[in-house]
Amino acid sequence: MVLLKMKFPFQKRVRLAQGLWLLSWVAMFSGAITFTMGAFLKTELHRRSEVMHSMDIHIVPNLLMAVGLASVGINIFAGKVCQDSLDPSRFPRWKTFLPPFFCFSVFLTSLLLVAMILSFALQPSLEESLKIGLKNGIRFYKDTDTPGRCFQKETIDRLQIEFQCCGNTDYRDWFEVQWISNRYLDFTSKEVKDRVRSNVDGRYLLDGVPFSCCNPASPRPCIQYSLRDNSVHYNYEYQTEELNLYSRGCRQALVSYYMGLMNTIGPCVLFDFLLQMAILVSLRYLQTAMEGVIGQEDVEIETDGYILEKGVKETLLETKEKVKKLLQFAQVGDASATTTDAQPEEEKPATA
Amino acid sequence: MAVLPIKFTKTKRDKLAQVLWVLNWISVVTGIILFSLGIFLKVEINKRQDLMAESQLQSVPNMLIAVGLIACLINFLGGKICYDCVDTNKFLRWKLVMLPYIICTFFFTLSVLVGALMCYSMHGQLEEALTLGLRDAMRHYKDTDTPGRCFLKRTVDLLQIQFQCCGNEGYRDWFQIQWVSNRYLDMSQREVVDRLRSNVEGKYLMDGVPFSCCSVNSPRPCIQHQITNNSAHFNYDFQTEELNLWTRGCRQALRDYYTNIMHSVGLTVLIIWLFELSVLTGVRYLQTSLENVLRQGDPECESDGWLLENSFVETARSNLNIIKHLGKFNQINISSNGDPNLDKPPTAHYGPDNVPPKPLPMAS
């Protein structure tokens, strides 16, 4: 029972080969675009790698880059096959290569779908990685004199200014961390001593935020210190004040940024996947149609094209048998090697 | 004595025409590039319109846009002409147009050069516009409740953050203006009243700067208030402190930014000008060699091409004479003593013997 049989007269075959050749060029460019989009996503993820704890999410751009490159190669090969298929004398040399080629390309193309699914499935992992990374960044904000952490202040400041966000979940994260280094605290003053004594760990905590949390859209000059104290500032009420600082948390800002990027890349990857599958299906039809022509004298006869010669189940059973035979052949090869070694020794004493 | 004559065989002429056709199409693309450079410059200047006072800065991008459009048209026509020049018959169609076309294109390339030079000479206007514009923007920083000026605070803050600069020439400019609005000043406090009384105009001046002046490279949290008061902050000496605020002034930052853009644009326009000039030279050689072919009569023969038929001096002299006589076409001919009605005897030719005819007998 043949799968999806179609009749192919000569003209239809020729047109199929020509159209497929053109389509393979389009798909080659589409593969190159997929590669560049993967590279772009990777550079964007790498730029903020200092606030990310794990690199799990990098598998998505890696997959895109690998499949993009491979699809360029696949489409060049497909184009070559199409060119040769119009000449029946040159087509037979591709005969042995085509079945493994199909398995390989179908596998690679399905990796595109895997990448798309992963980009949604890894969102919680990205969020968790950002949560830990930002927490560390905020904790080490004050350590500008510790080698290995001295750039955290600059990184966090630039991040908050560029993404218009403050803190991990929101600005209150800064109240729980000492973000002013002890080098700039006058320990002889009463205020500093009171604050340091007010908590168990001896940290200088205050209801203030760094300047990078300030919102330029605010109508009044930025209030960064004594945020919870209405009496310190004239005409200020912190419960109703919305424009003074950035209200968004940096974790949410970064997650939406990366999700936005992946949602833009998604449709292009889907288009590439569909294009590639269409090319593979058409190439299979072309191959099977041309196999009917090989060996015939009249090149212009009508032949059948199909996807699978037998039904799906039967083909699977056949491939299983083939693979078993291959394995057995490998085993028998070892066994016959040992028996042929043993036999001449048995022969010799008989003839001696 | 022709200027730079070159001999052209038929194949050489044909190849020149084909090459010029391709080059003219490339010139159309460069014309589009000129146009887009003009648009880019216009957009960049408009983006910071709030910070620049009124000036003639818009003339440069406008000139580039106009020049780019005209370049596209001229080179499109030039491409058509060169395409037809391969065939001598078709050249006859364009024969009369070609010389005016070459002269117009020559003057047009001069305007491209003027556009390029304008890009380089904008310094003075730019500096003045920026100084006045920034000064006004900083003065109205606090007026976030006045319609028409309410976005200046945001503009100045974003400028200082993006260009990493503070104030007009330095951060001290902020000490001389009131950048905190009266709405947020508690007039009942003594300190506020003292500050207001300390100067003639009643402005609340302080040695502090807005948060956007803070540098991200500083190792310590930003100090924006009481900058000149060492005792207000622990372990702080404002004379040696360099990393706390941005040290560059915004006028210098913007001037450098725009000068870079202008120089790159000017360089590109100069290169395009040289390219146009070379295409024009090729067209001139093509025109003169084809005209010589027509003069000699044989389409397959070798002909000379040149830039000018006679040397520069003679060509200039003959052109000046033509221009002089242009003004004289309606003047009287003095050889008939000023009286145009005098009948001059005709110098007629009476056949091969040159015998005048006998006068006819008059009827009585």
TrEMBL record, chain A:
Alphabetical GO biological process terms: visual perception
A Pfam family it matches: Tetraspanin
Transmembrane regions listed in the UniProt entry: 20-41, 62-78, 98-122
Gene3D superfamilies found in the cross-reference section: Tetraspanin
Main location: membrane
Compartment list: Membrane
Superkingdom: Eukaryota
Region of interest: Disordered: 333-352
UniProt KW keywords: Membrane, Transmembrane, Transmembrane helix
Membrane topology field: Multi-pass membrane protein
InterPro entries named among the record's database cross-references: Peripherin/rom-1 (IPR000830), Peripherin/rom-1_CS (IPR018498), Peripherin_LEL (IPR042026), Tetraspanin/Peripherin (IPR018499), Tetraspanin_EC2_sf (IPR008952)
Assigned GO CC terms: plasma membrane
Family: Belongs to the PRPH2/ROM1 family.
PANTHER family the record matches: PERIPHERIN-2, TETRASPANIN
Protein name (database record): RDS/peripherin-like protein xRDS35
TrEMBL record, chain B:
Key words, A-Z: Membrane, Transmembrane, Transmembrane helix
Subcellular location(s) of the protein: Membrane
Biased composition (Pro residues): 354-364
Entry annotated with the keyword S-adenosyl-L-methionine: no
Biological process, per Gene Ontology: visual perception
UniProt-annotated stretches for the region Disordered: 336-364
Annotated transmembrane regions: 20-40, 60-78, 98-120
Any single Gene Ontology cellular-component annotation: plasma membrane
Entry annotated with the keyword Transmembrane: yes
Superkingdom, taxonomy of origin: Eukaryota
Principal localisation: membrane
Membrane topology note: Multi-pass membrane protein
A matching Pfam family: Tetraspanin
InterPro entries xref list: Peripherin/rom-1, Peripherin_LEL, Tetraspanin/Peripherin, Tetraspanin_EC2_sf
Family listed: Belongs to the PRPH2/ROM1 family.
Alphabetical list of PANTHER family matching this protein: PERIPHERIN 2 LIKE-RELATED, TETRASPANIN
Name under which the protein is recorded: Photoreceptor outer segment membrane glycoprotein 2-like
